[in-house]
Amino acid sequence: MNNVHTHLLGFPRIGANRELKHALEAHWRGQSSAAELEETGRALRARHWAQQAAAGLDFVTVGDFAFYDQMLGQIGLFGCAPARFGFAAGQTDLAQSFDLAQSFAMARGTGGRGADCCGDGGHAHGNGAALEMRKWFDTNYHYLVPEFSEHTTFSLAADRLLGEVAEAQALGHPVKVALVGPLSFLWLGKERDNAPGFERVGLLNRLLPAYGELLARLKGKGVEWVQLDEPILGLDLPPAWRNAFESCYWQLAQAGARIMLATYFSPLEENLGLACRLPVAGLHVDGVRARHELTSISDWLAHPKVLSVGIVDGRNVWRTDLDAAISVLAPLLEKRGGALWLAPSCSLLHVPYSLEGETALDPELRSWMAYAAEKLAELATLKAALGGRLDAATGAALAQARQAIGGRARSTRVHNDGVAQRVRALGPADERRNAPFAQRQRLQRARLNLPDWPTTTIGSFPQTDTIRAARAAHKRGQLASDDYETAMRAEIAHAVGRQLEIGLDVLVHGEAERNDMVEYFGEQLDGFAFSAGGWVQSYGSRCVKPPVIYGDVARPRAMTLKWATHAQSLSERPVKGMLTGPVTMLQWSFVRDDQPRAQTALQIALAIRDEVADLQRAGIGIIQIDEPAIREGLPLRRARWDDYLAWATRAFRVTAAAARDDVQIHTHMCYSEFNDILPQIASMDADVLTIESSRSDMATLDGFGRLGYPNALGPGVYDIHSPSVPGTGAMVRLLREASRVIEPARLWVNPDCGLKTRGWAETETALANMVAAARQMRAAT
Ligand code: GLN
Ligand code: ZN
């Protein structure tokens, strides 16, 4: 008889209506007590478990809930807070988990987390006390980075987790506990204050007893299965890390509970044999991204180990093709002697909660989609179908899925022959500027007539309450389009006026009319849709609502032209046209799964390219195409970097190459590490590249110098993420340092990112100091 089980790796915790976000923020404002916040958490967990039970999952998953972040939760669970917080070992009763105040101190620092700039998420800095945030693999979720040193000790503080287990059991649910496994936990952390030669993998022997004790205690509480996530098995691992797996899991095998080792986001490749050999009771693999490995994994995974197949895409919002899934699963089921577990490919943290109440999407598009709740229903249908229970409801669900999948594949809303043809027709000349940089530079100098050490900003100026209120009122229909437009034109005039007063050389219009740098363009492009409630946690209480790219992308009409020409009409000085690049548009959206990302990127590139052409025709002399997300799109495996970088940089070049030689193309990138992809960044051939670098004291620039970056460069001379106003002297020092690496004729002077999160007062002083710094540099050369 078939024995098909269903489970999930993790569930979105923010709540159907972002209850957790609102509760957290109320608590941080001092409007609710810790007990009230705990109660919200308890209610959300109960609701989410009930939903899992109702979908017929064989277990509810406990341990995926966190008030801020699951890695932070594990720092608490294993009592390894960095010493600087003052509640590390010896200073707190370690039998007890950290309380909320302690957790939030680590997450936000004692002075609160600094404002963040970059579209989808934040940078971890500010007062320096908070733990660093990093992107969770290639997702847009940010986790808090554990810190390890040779002094790190671990001791189990499981009362919070055990409390949640007891809660679920009291509600009558069979429980599977999910945690990050010990090797991924150490890998995802960083070394701090470490002695020479210290490597955090060496902490494994200290950490394992805590895991072992936990597994034993969970077993004692009647928890049969514990899921340990080791997604790093999908990465290029150094030998020391790979070799640690076997002994690690031999030790954990002694502890009792049955371990479901969970991998996701990436094929296992050279770690496939290792993962199958480990002495665990089950292995979960990503059946979406590693589908081609399923057969060999099934061959290698000895009975009676359980194979869990992540067949439903946990990273995207599309409905599963259930017929295709069944044809993958049926032979596996047979191979496994009738025993198989089914799950989403990864935690559902990365998709929105439920399509119910999704009012903004049109019904046809909606019928093609599945959020977390709908993905659970898909698992139930698959379980019934594979288990041979083809009752009426299952039949109906399969038929409905078939219809939606078929409809999407054939829809004219998805396919636009004109777009496909344009992409096919792209030739090498379409991705090349006419003349090489040196020649363009001469033409642009003649046209723009800028001083040495030209000053500029990255694009946005403060998004004031007035601006936000006007946009909200316009969206609600309470402010007529004409009035909204008048208000935005006034904001632009205001921003231009202030920049002239400050004395900047190259101006921007300030982006007042933009809610978000991706959404603003997506809303005006065919092929993009916007949901009403498609929120996904980004970090802490912060959520994003990524656009959904569902069809061929085309630009029906100009998107920025009227604002750009208005801004340019206000000044003799050049005002940059401001666009978002194709890779960033792609990276911060849910993308199509019916064509390669590269194809979608080229379609977006062509749409933005048309905007470049319109702007230059209207006399705009400088156009910036932002690509802050180009680095974060890098695949998890090195072997796939070249392929990605080839199409990503090509998409940028296709966008930019519409520009005549005398039109100056700028681009901007956030995040400071570029050294390993510098040749590819150079291949984008932007005339001017502005980067974040103030926080690394220009260290990033060394690479640009060493590797001979050929074009002009604007290393950020001050950190816009902090409200403190930089002094002229500090900026002069940074510019001097920069000029040791890049000759001054190729250097620009600018902050390290957009200013939309800052206030006007600090912005004006900071920029005035920056302009003074540029003047000092001019005087000295
Ligand atoms: N032009 C954008 C701005 O200034 C760039 C933002 C970003 O780098 N994420 O806001
Ligand atoms: Zn930036």
From TrEMBL:
Pfam families: Meth_synt_1, Meth_synt_2. This is 5-methyltetrahydropteroyltriglutamate--homocysteine methyltransferase. Keywords: Amino-acid biosynthesis, Metal-binding, Methionine biosynthesis, Methyltransferase, Repeat, Transferase, Zinc. GO terms for molecular function: 5-methyltetrahydropteroyltriglutamate-homocysteine S-methyltransferase activity; zinc ion binding. Its EC number is 2.1.1.14. Its cofactor is Zn(2+). Zn(2+) binds at residues 668, 670, 692, 753. Zn(2+) 1 binds at residues 668, 670, 692, 753. Belongs to the vitamin-B12 independent methionine synthase family. Residues 453-775 form the Cobalamin-independent methionine synthase MetE C-terminal/archaeal domain. Residues 6-335 form the Cobalamin-independent methionine synthase MetE N-terminal domain. CDD domains: CIMS_C_terminal_like, CIMS_N_terminal_like. InterPro entries: Cbl-indep_Met_Synth_N, Cobalamin-indep_Met_synthase, Met_Synth_C/arc, UROD/MetE-like_sf. L-methionine binds at residues 458-460, 511, 626. The active site is at 721 (proton donor). L-homocysteine binds at residues 458-460, 511, 626. 5-methyltetrahydropteroyltri-L-glutamate binds at residues 18-21, 135, 140, 542-543, 588, 632. Catalyzes the transfer of a methyl group from 5-methyltetrahydrofolate to homocysteine resulting in methionine formation. HAMAP family: Meth_synth. Pathway: Amino-acid biosynthesis; L-methionine biosynthesis via de novo pathway; L-methionine from L-homocysteine (MetE route): step 1/1. Binds 1 zinc ion per subunit. Binds 2 Zn(2+) ions per subunit. It comes from Massilia glaciei. One of its GO terms (biological process) is methylation. It catalyses: 5-methyltetrahydropteroyltri-L-glutamate + L-homocysteine = tetrahydropteroyltri-L-glutamate + L-methionine.
